[in-house]
Design a protein that fits this description.
The structure is a single chain. The protein is α+β, with helices and mostly antiparallel strands and 531 residues long. The chain is built from 17 helices and 20 strands. The protein has helices spanning 4-25, 50-56, 62-77, 82-101, 106-127, 136-147, 156-170, 251-271, 285-293, 304-314, 365-388, 397-410, 415-428, 430-439, 443-455, 473-476, 482-500, and strands at residues 35-38, 44-47, 129-130, 171-173, 179-181, 186-192, 200-203, 205-207, 220-228, 276-279, 297-299, 331-339, 344-348, 356-362, 390-393, 461-464, 469-472, 479-481, 504-505, 527-528. It is elongated and about 95 Å long. The structure holds adenosine-5'-diphosphate (ADP) and magnesium ion. Residues 27-30, 32, 50-51, 80-84, 145, 148-149, 394-395, 431, 435, 463-466, 478, 480 line the site of adenosine-5'-diphosphate.
Length: 531
């Protein structure tokens, strides 16, 4: 049996874990409050994104770090739902505290939590509803729900729309009837200076390089495009800097040969009908002039990443020898536009091309980065949802439904186990409770209404925080992906159960060379479990 000293340790671990959960609970949902983050230098930022807060928090306590680890794992695996997971973990610990005071053994509580979590997974499976990847309205609702509670919240309608557009462009049907989304085909570019509302989706890709020769054309409705990794106007061998003109011929003769090479190369491009060249290598001034005279756009020192992205967009290959261009496979066709204000070329190869670019704007660099994180999260959520194809009613609806199922299930269990499983059911309802608290609606009233609605069989009844009413959340477009919820409940219950079985935290020497890492579930070596 666990003795007094061990119990004290468990209570203190619960307090530490709970403190972390408390710090984000009030940010849950669209009406969550902002937090002010102050670093050691006194610099201040505000956010209502639970995962940003946890990410930035300065935490030493190992138990608290385990709770932060839940958020990290949730963000890595799913991209959303971190606040839910951490809040739930906190509530599971609070419920456990009461059971410990009643004299329940920590292992019994932990076992009950595992049973209940399994039941919750089954409940999620049963309640999940399929979404079709062409159902844009539903996809937008999912994206908006995912953006809720992040820094991107105020522009979630606009951002939801461009995120769905971006994904729709790169979604591909697989042979087995599923849908695959290659995230590599969605490029995200951030700019600071304007608000998130100015963010846009572009079909295709962009190249942020100025045309430095005034004589070159910059816009084409339908350009023949070459992606190049070869220097125009130079022989292959000469591209190695070791060959200097002196040890080949006289400077004048070298010059002469170079010019010939330049003309030869530009002629090749002319003959192939190339309108625009995007090259990883330099294009020298004389070659630029020749290209300009030939009406060809030459953009040089393009980032390798950008060229590789354009390979997908244009469905052609990067050419490494200008004299060996295969016109059938090496040339792409698309629209080229120079955006003078934002200073990039937009390359769009039409409706079927595999590439989307999201240009995200933020008022400052920090805001733009925060926005990028939120949008990445929403993209992850949508990608998973489309792959997985299943969503759940949000606004606390699924939690109330699961709580009822878990309570019903607990009735068949023996006394002590039953208490632990029931405690889990109560804890899960923290989601509608916190959503109500944060929206300034009375949590008990909301819970009573929600339970009554679910008793009547209204499985999708949840709280719409904007109106304060209990309503069908599917109709309201408040949707959460099934995978996100499963991960959140699993992560929270595993860590809560683990914390309950740690009755001593022992500092050990550890490996000095290792990078400092936040201990994830089960990772820290300095913990012992009661025997
Ligand atoms: P997390 O980090 O867990 O995603 P959020 O602050 O994003 O935390 O809140 C997510 C919760 O907010 C989910 O339970 C979701 O269903 C709920 N939610 C989103 N939009 C609404 C809404 N309009 N009304 C009520 N609940 C909502
Ligand atoms: Mg969220």
């Amino acid at each position: 049996m666990t003795g007094g000293a061990e119990l004290d340790e468990i209570f203190s671990n619960i307090t530490a874990g709970n403190a972390v959960a408390e710090s984000v609970r009030s940010t849950l949902g669209p009406m969550g409050m902002d937090k002010m983050l102050v670093d050691r230098t006194g610099s201040v930022t505000t956010t209502n994104d639970g995962s940003t807060i946890l990410h930035e928090m300065d935490i030493d306590n190992p138990t608290a770090q385990m709770v932060v680890g839940i958020a990290e794992s949730q963000n890595e695996a799913v991209g959303d739902g971190a606040t839910t997971a951490v809040t739930l973990a906190g509530e599971l610990l609070t419920e456990a505290e009461e059971l410990l005071e009643l004299g329940l053994h920590p292992n019994m509580i932990s076992a009950g939590y595992h049973l209940a979590a399994r039941r919750a997974r089954e409940g999620i499976e049963a309640a999940a509803v399929s979404v079709d990847h062409t159902d844009e309205a539903t996809l937008r609702a999912i994206a908006e729900t995912a953006l809720t509670g992040t820094g991107a919240e105020h522009h979630k309608e606009h951002l939801g729309e461009i995120i769905v557009d971006a994904i729709g462009q790169v979604a591909e049907k697989t042979d087995d009837g599923g849908v695959e989304i290659d995230r590599e085909k969605i490029d995200i570019d951030t700019r600071s200076g304007s608000s998130a509302g100015a963010s846009e989706w572009l079909r295709g890709g962009i190249v942020s390089k100025e045309p430095r020769h005034p004589g070159m054309p910059t816009d084409f409705d339908e350009a023949t495009i070459l992606l190049l990794n070869d220097a125009i106007g130079q022989e292959k061998a000469e591209q190695d800097a070791h060959v200097s003109p002196e040890n080949v011929d006289s400077a004048a003769a070298f010059d002469e040969r170079q010019d010939k090479k330049r003309r030869e190369h530009v002629n090749v491009l002319k003959e192939l009908g190339v309108d625009a060249v995007f090259s990883e290598k330099q294009i020298d001034d004389r070659s630029k002039k020749l290209l300009a005279d030939a009406g060809i756009l030459g953009v040089y020192r393009v980032k390798k990443m950008d060229l590789e992205f354009l390979e997908d967009v244009l469905d052609c290959a990067i050419v490494s020898d200008i004299l060996e261009i295969d016109p059938d496979h090496d040339l792409g066709t698309g629209r080229v536009d120079w955006d003078d204000e934002e200073e990039y070329f937009h390359i769009d190869a039409g409706a079927d091309s595999a590439g989307s670019t999201l240009i995200l704007s933020g008022s400052s660099e920090y805001v733009a980065r925060d926005l990028e994180r939120s949008v990445e999260g929403a993209l992850d959520v949508l990608t998973d949802t489309i792959r997985d194809g299943r969503v759940l009613p949000g606004g606390g609806a699924i939690e109330v439904e699961l709580a009822q199922e878990i309570r019903a299930y607990s009735e068949g269990l023996s006394g002590r186990e039953q208490l632990a499983v029931e405690a889990f059911a109560n804890a899960v309802e923290v989601v509608p409770r916190a959503l109500a608290e944060n929206a300034g609606v009375h949590p008990i009233d909301v819970l009573v209404d929600l339970r009554a609605a679910h008793d009547r069989g209204e499985q999708a009844a949840g709280l719409d925080v904007y109106t304060g009413d209990v309503r069908d959340t599917f109709e309201a477009g408040i949707l959460d992906p099934a995978g996100m919820k499963t991960h959140a409940i699993d992560g929270a219950s595993e860590v809560a159960a683990l914390i309950l079985t740690i009755d001593a935290v022992i500092s050990v020497k550890g490996d000095q060379d290792e990078d400092e890492e936040t201990p994830a579930q089960g990772a820290p070596g300095g913990m012992s479990t009661p025997g």
